[in-house]
Sequence to fold (1437 residues):
Amino acid sequence: MDPECSQLLPALCAVLADPRQPVADDTCLEKLLDWFKTITEAGSSLQLLQENPCLVELLCHVLKPQGLSARVLSFSLRLAGVFAAQESCFQYLQQAELLPGLFGEAGPLGQAAWSAPTVRSGWIQGLRSLAQHPSALPFLADCGTLDTIFSLQGDSSLFVASAAGQLLVHILGLSLQGPAEGPPSPQACDWPVCAQKIVGHIEGSLRSMATPQVTQALNVLTTTFGHCHGPWMQVLWERLSPLVACLLQEDPLPAAHSLVDLLLSVARSPVLSSSDCGLWETLAQTLRRLSPAQAGPLALGILKLQDCPQALRAQAFGVLLQPLACVLTAADQAPGPPGLPEGTTGDSVTVDTLLSSKSACAGLLCQTLAHLELLQPLPQRPSPWPQAPLLGAAVTILRFCNGSAAPASDVGGRLCAILAGCVRVQRAALDFLGALAQETGPQELVTQVSAVLLEYLRSPDSSPTVLKKAFQATLRWLLSSPRAPGCCDLDPDTQLFLRELLPVLRKRLCSPCWEVRDSGLEFLTQVTRHWGGQAGFRHALLASEVPELAEQLLRDPESYVRASAVTAVGQLSSQGLHATAASPEQLGGQKESLLAELLHVLSTDSEGFPRRAAMQVFTEWLRDRHADVAEDTERFVARVLQAASRDLDWEVRAQGLELALVFLAQTLGQPSARCPYAVAAPQATPPGPLAQALRALSRVRLFEFAFRALFDCDRPVAQKSCDLLLFLRAQATPSGGLQEAEGSPDVPEAVLAVLRSLDLEGLRGALAESSDHVEKSPQSLLQDMLATVGVRGENQADCY
Amino acid sequence: MKLYCLSGHPTLPCNVLKFKSTTIMLDCGLDMTSTLNFLPLPLVQSPRLSNLPGWSLKDGNAFLDKTELIDLSTVDVILISNYHCMMALPYITEHTGFTGTVYATEPTVQIGRLLMEELVNFIERVPKAQSASLWKNKDIQRLLPSPLKDAVEVSTWRRCYTMQEVNSALSKIQLVGYSQKIELFGAVQVTPLSSGYALGSSNWIIQSHYEKVSYVSGSSLLTTHPQPMDQASLKNSDVLVLTGLTQIPTANPDGMVGEFCSNLALTVRNGGNVLVPCYPSGVIYDLLECLYQYIDSAGLSNIPFYFISPVANSSLEFSQIFAEWLCHNKQTKVYLPEPPFPHAELIQTNKLRHYPSIHGDFSNDFRQPCVVFTGHPSLRFGDVVHFMELWGKSSLNTVIFTEPDFSYLEALAPYQPLAMKCIYCPIDTRLNFIQVSKLLKEVQPLHVVCPEQYTQPPPAQSHRMDLMIDCQPPAMSYRRAEVLALPFKRLFEKIEIMPELADSLVPMEIKPGISLATVSAVLHTKDNKHVLQPPPRPAPPTSGKKRKRASEDIPDCKVLKPLLSGSIPVEQFVQTLEKHGFSDVKVEDTAKGHIVLLQEAETLIQIEEDSTHIICDNDEMLRVRLRDLVLKFLQKF
Fold:
């Protein structure tokens, strides 16, 4: 600790210990604690305490019942824990009777302050910090501390309760890994006292069969198996697994969710999964025992495990597929849906859950679909993957939801009544259907997928969020559609689909609901980006009215829609699909008008989103050397930069720098950062062209823009500008091209002189620091805290 | 209590409720679907229509769908729930001997009048040279082509009423306000409640002191222009009659409005015209409001909107003055002050123009492409006929059906072949089945009565079990021309006691909290109100003759035996008997109580919950002794 801080410390400790001078700001105490942590990590705590006796005095002060504020009390407990984390300091505080005083019955535990959650939390965190060395264990075991922790597991504050559980896990781990002489004996009497007590408590809780206790015990075990490693884990599981198995006999099953978490945590633990310990059998039994909704997460967890018996995986997959099997059975008259793994037929329990209520049905289906969606891209997913029945199930669910399914059975009829118009399930099913587009399926099913997607896109009843999902799923299916063999164009089915889709898109772009117009435009942008080069697509799109409508939406009253329209029109134009490109006689005038229109958006739109979108489009156009831009690039860049420099939105200005960088790169050569592994050093631009290039930059007023941005009040803009200027300097100076340019002292020369004189590296470093780095020294922290004491209440609001 | 069901159309109901001594007609909707059997009445001579072969330009076109189930002259009152459900009123008030009163809210009457006026105007302005009615003869009807030959009871089809009849019918209406309590002959009280469906639309509560019947007709829970539906007052009903649900349960109105706007924009953008056949009031207000918000975003600011109806002006203006009947949002606008509906601004800025008919100013102002709102939705009469003829040949134009009352395919039949695009966006804001099930859960009526159509899924979607009423106990259904005995018995009647009589009563507490008193009084019943009055005092005994006469007038008040209450504890009773010297007492349990046998005396005492009999053989002494022992256990007063 530096001497200045040492000098300030006694005064601060005195302030903290004085209940008449309350500390106004919690964050100061947190920062103070952080500071002590860094000090103790770097050096001896004991020495620190000896050099600064005021700290021990502060801790002693806590022992006196004099109404310290809860936050100072909590702080002191945590501070004591930070010091006691070092064994030598622990002994020192022990001898001073400080630790038993702080953490024992005599301390805050018995005082009124204990009712404040922050004090209880500080108590736990203090113990958590000090429990770092085996000598702390007797202390924990002796003075009834463990019992207090046990009771805090059920604390009314969730933070305290959870921290208590974590602490138990930590103590258990500390006490069992101590005597590193091979695995501990399964006999409890040979275990360290702390471990015995904790495990005993867990066993008691598991035997109690009361849901809160069982939940606490299971949570502690889950964390233990998730975080601790060591041979003793296996012994622990062997000892506790019979009790866990007993839980499965209970009806109703207590704490099913926590049980699932525990079993998965155990299964993932590397120590255990290799040596079975009956775990697989327990998992199989649990899968059978849990209700369909509870079993889903367990089944997913099992399927994600790296190595687990094939039979268990099959069982888990069966459980996961149950609800979909029920749906398929309800829609078909066939006894079992074809293609699903054997044994997966809708069982009565799942059917009952599905039919019990609308919320239960929607919940189970959404969960199942989400689980399968997560599983689908994983390498360890079950193989063979039942793509066809899953597609069938997704289509059937969507049909039930929009009432177009013709249920064959009574169950189907009731399912239809429950699911009709259920937006939640529609969204989940569309997401899942989209995920399934990674692979194709039988042609007949793919046709059904297209049909159901069209139904959803067409239906006036589809809610805006459902429509958005329908557009997304459609896009994924479209992009995954196969190309006709021997030809790079779209296959006939896709062509046909497009012909039906585009009128729907056209109608959706006219929707009175802005969300729908927005998702329609997003879809248009995406599909154009991928298919802009496909003749079939180009033909169909140009024949539809869609490009005109997209341009019309540039003047939409809703800013999000305008932004999406800007992006869409920009994309269409990049691909030569802009509305008026079709009529050659208007070519020149109309083309200019789109650029002008987007410039108009950039300079006049009242909302940030459309302006940002316009900047992005311009950057892209410049990068791709869009025909309109290429006509007169300098004029284009000059106009855009001029508009961007005046913008109030920092993202627009930052995007302006991005555009400037692209222009720079095109004028001077690629930025070196683009190919960091290039063998040769970046080629400097030859001197003659360099001067020309610099003059070009000057003509578009890029320097003015960049220098102004360098001192922008928004840091990202300044940073970006700094990077740009650094790049410019690197490109312009290495080969001494400046001397060459000396002959004609003009703007570029002056600019380069400025560039050389600026400490850009230093500026970049300063900008990379966080905004409060200047004020972040420990000394200023102590000064601030001292300064705020006593003036509390006058300018409280002025913290920042 | 009986319900006579005169209409088979669930959204155009006509039921008669006999409740206590009153006969109440609930709505009188006019089912006009039979117009679809006729050819359109063109405003301008149409060579195409008049050259059609066969049965052209036949009869008058008004159609009353009623049976002689009940003598309508006995109806005491008619309760109207909304302006669509009063269109048959002139037929009932003018030609049946009806002498009662009609109750309706002011907007219902005013807008109902507009609808009738429009109807009469549409029919009368194209008088027909000849009219045929012989075909209604069953023998001829059989020979006609389908669907005419299958039409039921064509003999009940009527000509359209005249304006005189309308005025006379409307003069019988008494205006009421929401939650106003109206006494009917002292027997029942009726109260209109806001139903949220249209301006002034109401549901009705019909209640006596101990019974409550709710009549729910066209109601809506959506946020449109009318005052929201009052659900709370429907609670605790014994019977809830549920009619007027949405006719298109699968179409959600929001989606349909979106569809309407998108199709309108697409047509106009391509230079086509849009025709919207509609009623002059109701959904059109909401459509105009949607368009008001939409036209700028869709770039339609320069497209003229025409509203053509003989009552267009009145309808647009009426809507603005009924502020108290509007939803809260619109009510607050009035205080700003601003017109509650934005169509005022559309009119001001000349974007919306209205005309009484296509003749006159309209022909000067008419500009295409445009959007035309006009009637009648059946496409059989009104200015819409002209536009169908005018625009039907071009595929650029679109007709958008928003009213759900008529099958759009049947409506279009006489205009085929048609190049014009047809879009069906039925907007029906009335309750759907999900909303009904929530409503029923909320108000918990003991019994639900509804048209049979609501108790099964629609025929075209027989698998949609969600499209029917699902409640417990299952709803009672009715069909046309059925008489339904409503499933509850009246158990109580309220009787008032005059204060002086009440003063004279001396209640005796027989159980904690329960006191009894005997009353001798005269029951006076007048106007269905029952009052207990003190009995007239016996006249002072002046002379023998007079006394004799007096005793004729007043029923002899005999000395009243005391009333007994309580129950006899058998064991104690047996002990008492033994104490009084009956030695051979035997007790037998029976289904209703006990029998105490005194074998020696050959006597048995039958003790049941509400009676005690002493059966002994001609031994009056013994009987009296036993009786007195029994009475010891009972309270007297």
